[in-house]
Amino acid sequence: xxxxxxxxxxxxxxxxxxxxxxxxxxxxxxxxxxxxxxxxxxxxxxxxxxxxxxxxxxxxxxxxxxxxxxxxxxxxxxxxxxxxxxxxxxxxxxxxxxxxxxxxxxxxxxxxxxxxxxxxxxxxxxxxxxxxxxxxxxxxxxxxxxxxxxxxxxxxxxxxxxxxxxxxxxxxxxxx
Length: 176
What we know:
alpha/beta
């Protein structure tokens, strides 16, 4: 669904756990780190827009996606981030794995993008049908006919891979 693959760039914040950047690398893409804002310690909307403009200047194209993280239970400035993402047509995958319960501007953490993982389940309560089918196909490798999965998957624990599962499923299904 996000179609991230080799040669693409994905924006993620610089102050985060390695699991935020690992799924980008697993797809053959390159993480582009965006500095944090002092108010939330999360992705800075100001630096985000500067990073997008810089990538367009240097590569001639905008990054393929962005992953802001709601770090330490503090929601990122998602209203501003979503506005910038919309301006440049960049899909957003909000990683709310560390944000159980907080909200900002009346919106709960993890509810800003169409595929934002939530802390309780690892997936949005009602994921888009294509995302749900793709995730189901990749989460249990070896369960296809004759133990041959229809596409590669893994049995990683959801706590460490909430964002990576969504990106992996999205990229795998985009190539299907």
